[in-house]
Amino acid sequence: MRVILAGGGTGGHVIPALAIAQELKRDCVAEVLFIGTARGIENRLVPAAGFPLRLIEVGALKNVSLPTRLKTAFALPRAVWDSWRMLAEFRPHVVIGVGGYASGPAMFAAA
Prior knowledge:
CATH architecture: 3-Layer(aba) Sandwich
Helix content: 40-55%
Radius of gyration: 14 Å
CATH superfamily: Glycogen Phosphorylase B
Distance between the termini: 19 Å
Number of helices: 4
Strand content: 15-25%
Order of helices and strands: EHEHEHEH
Strand order of the largest sheet: 3-2-1-4
CATH class: Alpha Beta
Shape: globular
Structural class: alpha/beta
């Protein structure tokens, strides 16, 4: 089974995702791929746990300035496109969103 775990940013998103990935790998012999961002903690924790991580560029929409929101809004279509390409290449059976900014584009692409 091929599974994508999308999201991250903080340990509250990444630690549970890693627990899911480890259980899937152990119990189901699943192939797991993470989708996250370069700025999130997943950039360190996921490779250290031995799982592949693909990156998308997505920023914040909440509690940021208007220029930052606009930049993020213009970057979202690209993030969805990049996520869609990753899904098309990996061909997952399941996509799980774990929260954080990277989960939005990946889940939208999976829908």
